[in-house]
Amino acid sequence: MINLQTIAIDGPAASGKSTLGEKIAEKLRFLFLDTGIMYRAVTLEAIQKLSNTGLGNEEMVTKIAEESIIEIKPSSINDGRKSDVYINGVEITKKLHLPDVDENVSNISTFSGVRKALSAQQRAIGLKGKVVMVGRDIGTVVIPEADIKIFLEASAEERAKRRYIELQAKNINISFDSVIASINKRDQIDESRDLAPLVKAKDAFVIITDNINIDQVIDIAMKYIEEKRSYRYTY
User: Fold this and answer.
1) Between the CA of residue 195 and those of 6, 113, 136, 219, what are the distances in Å?
2) pLDDT, tens digit, for every residue of 29-44?
């Protein structure tokens, strides 16, 4: 068994973080937590409770984040989902990638109150150890002391293709142009926000995922993890 306790995987939207994190967690028998799911859950709850103008009200959205109980459970349906997601007892898994959520999640994730509420929950889970956590600020903000930090990169076009295929498989009717526009918008917001912007940790291992498949990404990541283990044992 690999003698590492926390693995942080960061990267932009649709870069393959969740798939990689899930596979690594499976191999190591670690807990897998996709923190983006938590932001999506709060965004969906805000969309359902507030008007469109209300989504820009940080105080109201923060209150929703602070009061919401988010549960992530093992998948109960073989439809491609990685887990079942509940908020306040209601199962919302299939709604987390609806266009309205895609359009608003990055804006809502810039709210300091929302990030504070969710980051505290994420950090508490991470510090328990034996966890693979994925997001946009895990290795820089949530768990900067993580044993392993991996950062995934891919072009916006490649990431849009992946997200488009994923949405089509879920019978969500949306154009490719809309998907790539959403990806570009989210990148701009994630990289420019004042609080916890999307940046590579200085000690992160970078994997560029254009033109390679997920099995190759997993092999590269696991080789790096094994090398880190060997280094620890040697020194």
Assistant:
1) 23, 10, 12, 33
2) 998 989 989 999 999 9
Whether the model clears a pTM of 0.85, i.e. scores above it, the answer is no
- CB of 119 within 8 A of CB of 142? yes
Question: Alpha-carbon distance 128 to 130, whole Å?
Answer: 7
pLDDT tens digit sequence for 186-219: 898 888 887 788 899 999 999 999 989 999 999 9
Q: Which long-range contacts (CB under 8 A, 24 or more apart) does 105-108 make?
A: 105/36, 105/39, 105/40, 105/43, 105/186, 106/185, 106/186, 106/189, 106/190, 107/55, 107/56, 107/189, 108/39, 108/42, 108/43, 108/46, 108/55, 108/61
Long-range contacts of 153-157 (CB under 8 A, 24+ apart): 153/11, 153/12, 153/15, 153/206, 153/207, 153/208, 153/209, 154/11, 154/12, 154/14, 154/15, 154/16, 154/208, 154/209, 154/210, 155/210, 156/180, 156/183, 156/184, 156/187
Domain edges within the chain: 6-220
Query: Which CATH architecture describes the domain 6-220?
Result: 3-Layer(aba) Sandwich (3.40)
Tokens representing 142 are: 């949530």
